Amino acid sequence: MLMLAACGSTKNSDGSWIENDITTSQLSSLQREYDAGHRAGLNDPIQVSREFISSLSGIEVDESGESVIEEQDGHKQLAVYPLTNGKSIELELAHPNDGEEGILYVKRYRIVTK
Fold this sequence. Notes:
Shape: globular
Helix content: 10-25%
Radius of gyration: 14 Å
Oligomer: single chain
């Protein structure tokens, strides 16, 4: 089973974006699984976001806070979750090859001060 794991570091404390270094091959494999009827949640921005956040060491979502997922230009979505340390995590979700269809994945993310 392949996970949408975070491969980058979360050490950027300046709010700069951290690219997720998931490979084209990994994305193709995930898309094939989805197309075959497995991992149906790979097109759900909430599930993809939460799975990704869970893969980050030391990052914990504040469940009492409000999370938001909004549409962005270019067929991307921005997911924002409050963290228990008083900061927020922003995740840019996209379809492979920045298209309009298929699975979603976290293209990049950042930790920001509210």
